Amino acid sequence: MSHLLSPKMKEEVTYTELSFHKTDDVEKVLQMDLTEKPEQPAPRSLRSRVPLGQLPMCLLLLLLLSGLIVLGILFSQEQAERKSLHSRNTNLTQSLQRMTTELCRQLVAGNKESNCFPCQKRWQWFGASCYRKFEKWVTWSEGKKLCHSKNSTLVKIDSQEELNFISQYNHVWLGMSFNTSRRSWLWEDGSALRDGLIQNMESPSDYRTNYCASQTSYVSYKSCLESSYILCEMVAGPVRAESLY
């Protein structure tokens, strides 16, 4: 029958068939989309990562950790209290020592033979030191050695009060010499003379001679090879409270 159709009619029939096939395909796709998908299983609830059998052990470890933290805090507090107590005890001891020393000074001023005297016999007490003049006419180096043999040193002047105190001694060596390399006056321990403490202690003009300090009516210097008496100084011992009675 197709041979009886005109060309135009054949095209219309072909188009109709194609449209029909396309319509069937669309319906199939729609039917597939409308088809209910199988329900996905609900997500499983998260289980505990720690097995129930290990839970008591975890609780015990947690308690132990908490206990260690508490002990650490208590230990820190105890250390702070001990440090504070030690500081208070130190301050109290120092205050008591100052009071004892001052009381001993008053006793010594009225009685030279007081048991609290913190210096050896024939030594003089001033400030925190003991002093003694040795009537030996020696060089500065020899005088330094003699003081060392007495567990002392040649006098070092640290203050105006001490300078006034030693003015009672005449013709004695002091523990200071001129250092030519540093161009300055140095005490035995290597410390420099404090500015303005002693007058007339300028640098010597002759660096070929070793100069050392001495006390006459005032502090001056002369060749270390000359001779003078010796004035030694040592730290005074502590004054004990029981020695006051």
From TrEMBL:
GO biological-process terms attached to the record: platelet formation; signal transduction
SMART domains in the cross-refs: CLECT
C-type lectin domain residues: 126-233
UniProt topology in membrane: Single-pass membrane protein
GO MF term (any one): carbohydrate binding
Highest taxon in the source lineage: Eukaryota
One Pfam family here: Lectin_C
Keyword Coiled coil: no
Keywords: Disulfide bond, Glycoprotein, Lectin, Membrane, Transmembrane, Transmembrane helix
Membrane-spanning residues: 54-75
Cellular compartment(s): Membrane
One GO location term (cellular component): plasma membrane
Record protein name field: C-type lectin domain-containing protein
Species the sequence originates in: Ornithorhynchus anatinus (Duckbill platypus)
